[in-house]
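Example record

One chain of 260 residues, shown exactly as stored in the release files.
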Amino acid sequence: MNLPLQLCQEVHAECVRSVLKIQINRPAQKNALSLAMYQSLADALAWAQTADEVRVVRITGSGDSFTAGNDLADFMSAPELTQDHPARQFMRAVMGLHKPLVAEVNGAAVGIGTTLLLHCDLVYACEDAFFQLPFVKLGLCPEFGASALLAERVGVARAREMLMLGEPILAPDAHRFGLINEVYSDERLEGEVDWVCRELVNRPPQALAVTKHLLRAGDQIDLEAVIEAELVEFAKCLNGDECRAAVQKIMSGNKTPGNK
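Predicted structure tokens for this chain:
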């Protein structure tokens, strides 16, 4: 079924057999997220939270990328990260989702393309996928709780390396570090995620929701406070000279943010 929502053309969403599949569909720009895309993603997730017909949410990209992260030119057009900023709405919608969230990483996952995965319940990637957090390279700081969650997931030493150096991590290494659940060939990825989603649909939904809540409750950090502190610093960086110089360099070279 189609959603009773008006989404932007770069975000496709359809609910089939109780699985809401959300696809980021801006392949020419490596699925870089504009403000309009953030808003559509937030709206789709908010709808999924209350829709009885949705039992599982699955998010993926199109082409050869999951997402290259923020469309920096568009993001810098609204540098004030107010409470109703589309990116904030998206983060709240992800964190507020009580239903299983499965990520099908079909390619490059850069910036929030990687930090989002820290909030997903299950993450599967293709062999060609890579994961990169180039915040410092862009004159920025981590977001979406990555300054705390990443160390919990991959260890402090690895988290420092990923966040401070910002070099890409290949899918097999990401699996070995514990960032993702499994790696599959391009040919197998979609089918394997199909199976996982079907299995989740067949699980008792209340038990799944309670289990997800308890897993989150086990965190020893106030995640909302961490994210808020990150966003305060992120906004300062976004308006700073270092970020503007980095973005200008990218624009002049016509490179995606994750490119070296």
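Notes: Residues 35-50 form the longest helix (16 residues).
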